[in-house]
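Posting this for the archive.
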Amino acid sequence: MGENKYHTRLLLTETKDLLLRQLKDVEAIDTKASIILGADALLLTAGSTIFITLPPLQSVNERVSILVTVSIFLSFAFLLTSFILALVSYCVASYKETINPRAAANAWVGRDETDVLTEYLDTLIDAYEKNVQSIDLKVQRFNWSLWCLAASVCLTSIVAFIYFLSA
């Protein structure tokens, strides 16, 4: 019986540590998502200002002009998509709490310590498993946001090269 209690306490400690690491991972992802949000907002603002004030291409043929225009709109679409995905990634915060302390105290008072530890461990494991799904979704949205930002920057670089080469 004593050895079972020891194993349960060890598992409790490890599971609590895993939950704490999950929270640190969430904070790191949120920090990165906020940086992407800032970069997207800056690029959207700068890009729209430049696009509005940019003189039209006159020395190039119609195909190049259409290519540049379509590339600019695609670049803005990627940037806007990146912004939205980063925002959603930053905002997703439906993480499962471990237990309600008052309800647990009422339910577990007077019960055997091993039973209480086992039930508490079950709630921690349940919270950990549900949080994994939320965090994976957050990371997936963040990664897509990053790829959209990279695509937008590449397209913008190509457009700038074509534009200034033709000017």
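Helices lie at 2-53, 62-91, 101-108, 113-166. The two ends are 83 Å apart (CA to CA).
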